[in-house]
Every structure is written in C-alpha cells, then in structure tokens.
Amino acid sequence: MKFMDLPNEYCTDNSFFCILPIEYEKDLTYGEGASKGSSSIIEASKHLEYYDEQYDNEPFIKGVFTLESLKLNEVNANESIEKIASVVSGVDCGFLISLGGDHAVTIGTVKGFEKKNDNFSVIILDAHSDMFHSWNNSQLNHRCVSQRVSEKHKTLLVGIRSMDKDEKEIIEGNENVDLLKMHEFSIEKFKEKLSKLDSKVYLSIDVDVFDPSFIRNTGTPEPGGFFWKEIISILEEIFKSKKVIGADIVEFAPNVNFSSESFSLAKLSYKLMSLREKFNNSEC
Prior knowledge:
- Helices cover 31% and strands 17% of the residues.
- It has one domain (3-279): Arginase, Chain A, CATH 3.40.800.10.
- The longest helix is centred in the C-terminal third of the chain and has 21 residues, at 259-279.
- It starts with 16 loop residues before the first strand and ends in a 5-residue tail after the last helix.
- Strands 1, 2, 3, 4, 5, 6, 7, 8 and 9 form a nine-stranded parallel beta sheet that branches.
- By secondary structure, it is an alpha/beta fold.
- The protein has helices at 37-45, 77-90, 105-114, 145-149, 165-172, 187-194, 228-241, 259-279; strands at residues 17-23, 64-66, 70-71, 95-99, 121-125, 155-160, 177-181, 200-206, 243-250.
- Helix 2 (77-90) crosses helix 3 and helix 7 packs parallel to helix 8 (259-279).
- The radius of gyration is 17 Å and the shape is globular.
C-alpha cells in the first residue's frame, strides 16, 4: 500500500517525505494489536484531502514514499531494534515518519537518527512516563522507552497522567529528563520547557496521549488526555521553534470500530508533513 494512494509520480524513492510502517509488538502489558496499526493508518490515508486548509499547503507535491513494511513480530527485541535502526539510518529523504508498532520501536528509530544527526533532543507525547530500567526482563520493552532514549538525549515527556512511584524517583535523578504532567499542562509551561531542548528534536507520539473518547484503540488507554486541537497546538509550537528531524506515531491497536481513528491518525501523519513544510521548509 502507498500512503494516500498517490499517483506514482508523487511516490518515488527521491520523495521528500517518507513513511516507514513497522509491525512490531512484544511483551505487552494490557491490550494487543499495535502491530496492525500502520497498515490501518495507511489504508485510511487514501481518503485524505491533498490540501491542508489550516496551513495552506499541499505536502504531497514534494512526494510521499512508502517504504516496505518491517514485519518484526517473529523477531526478538534486540534484532528488531537493530533492524529498525539500520533501516532508519539508511533512509535518504527530507522527513521520515514511522508508523505503528508498540512504543519500543522508538528506541530503534532514535538509534537510527543518531547515525545521521549530531545532537538532538527527543519529545515524547504520552500518557505514561515509560521510565523503567527494565520490564518483563527486557530493557527494550515499551515501558522503558523514555529511559533508553534519555541515556543520550535531553527528553521532554508531555501529557503524562500515569506513572509508578519508582519512575518518579528515576526521573528526579535523571538530569536529561523533563516532565510536564497532564494536570499541570499549559502552552506557556510547554514553551518554557521546549526552550531548554536542543535546536533539533525527534518527535514520538504515543496515541494514548489522546483522550480515550477520541482514540480508544490503543494498548493502555488513560482517561483525561488531549484532544485534536490541543495536540495540533502543541505540534505547531514544536515546529515553529525547533528543527524536527523525524517523527513516529505508535501504539495504535485497531480492534473495534476503528475506522474514524485510523483516518484521524492518517490525518495526523499528513499534518506533520504540513507542519514540516510550513515551518521547517529547508533540508535538515
């Protein structure tokens, strides 16, 4: 499948935008199905309009190439992370969006970007802090994502509304991690924390950052999350002030009445391209 089912001339291997589908889920803590998220989003994307009325642009004109899906459910965690990192580091395009899989895939995508970028920070939009050193005897579990990426990068966690007391203590002892909990969120506080990050950032969006009344098909839904307009406002602040080198959308698990959610996340993917085109309109 091709993102947006674009005509061939708009999805060549020298396109500016690239989509990397990742089918991966391991040692889950609650719901299943994250490995099916990327295909569902891409299938829904064929119904998108080409024109973004909010940012007055048509990102598809610069090309959107959909890479071959990484099918990693039968591959162990270490090999999967290395495979993701290898593919990401070899992608030669202006802006890469990875879709799907559980949140552990972000460990691999960040590792891949490390091979072709100097200093950059990581922004994670998530309901959970994911700061455990290990979980289920694995340091590559989705509950360890923030811990792993913060080993080398300043990491800002936004929208957090579920965490363990041990994670609280880990965060307090980690100078690379900053936290903006959901109950204390404001755009002003977010801008302040954003200003402390590097000029380049990688963006990870766990879909459970949304309120479950909007996105309920995710492995670990949490009440009290963001809605569409709030997330777009957050993303706009990021793209206005930072060079976004890449992004992922993870933890979508299409199981029940998911068509509108698939479409919403396809639109979110295209919105990332619109924001990249509007505010970061130059090569990284």
